[in-house]
Amino acid sequence: MKHESVETNAGLLIILTLAVISVGGLVEIVPLFYIDDTIEEVDGVRPYTPLEQRGRDIFVREGCYTCHSQMVRPFRDEMLRYGHYSLAAESQYDHPFQWGSKRTGPDLARVGGKYSNEWQVQHLIDPQSLVPESIMPGYPWLAETPLDYSDIDRRMVALKRVGVPYSLTEEEYEANVERFGEEHARMFDIRDAEDNLVRQAQAGNFDGNPGTVTEMDAMVAYLQVLGTMVDFSEYDDGHFAEFR
Q1: Can you spell out the DSSP letters for 111-127?
Q2: 95 vs 93: CA distance, rounded Å
Q3: Residue 150, exposed/middle/buried by CB under 10 A (0-12, 13-18, 19+)?
Q4: In CA terms, which of 93, 181, 191, 203 is 20 to 30 Å from 102?
């Protein structure tokens, strides 16, 4: 069959197009019926604490995702620069997730613990003071704006409805103790969300100002947890390849 025949016959072109789309769809869909889960089996991944979640909300609000992806792709050059490639399991509690390929700035999937709290604060206030070639704008108001956490319990309830295992009952709390440990289970208890948020902010003193809980506290708390939940040294090389 000549290609010209396909291009000049609308009916034939539609039929062949539908056939190609159908085959492509089957290739993508059929394997899903033969696997138990699309999430890797990995220890350590947990929901965000109330403070970290508010930081993530601010990260999204300020549009940081438009310049920074959170997805290390499984290519040698990316893993040499950023670390182990991203796992689906690491984003299972993200709504919405921050994957993508737009990188005006570096990928942030594994930025947690790479720099000190002080570095993160200064970088957010005046990026060029630490990275002269950076084109990132400053966000000095984060250090001056008190964090609004009056609705943190409602935010957590909304996330719970889409599958994040925050607890509202004693039974759910005990399930989280067994799954994540008592320390984290306390942080995931919606009934004490505000107290837990303030407690973590004061203990971490992320913005260097222990007198108040600011948006900077939340933002830095979020950045410092990115990529830190999975200890990849516990897994053999190639362990996660079977899930790809």
Answers
A1: -TTTS-HHHHHHHHH-G
A2: 6
A3: exposed
A4: 93
Which pair of tokens denotes residue 51? 């403070």
User: End-to-end alpha-carbon separation of the chain, Å?
Assistant: 37
- Which residue from 139, 180, 156 is spatially nearest to 46, judged by alpha carbons? 180
| Cα–Cα dist 192/21, whole Å | 50
Task: Give strand pairing partners of 68.
Answer: none
- In this predicted structure, what is the pLDDT of residue 100? 80
- Read off the pLDDT of residues 176-190 as tens digits, 9 standing for 90 and up: 999 999 999 999 999
pTM: 0.85
Question: Helix, strand, or coil here: 189?
Answer: strand
**192-204 b/e (C-beta count within 10 Å ≥ 16 → b):** bbeebbbbbbeee
Pick the closest to residue 201 from 186, 215, 184 (CA basis).
215
DSSP 237: T
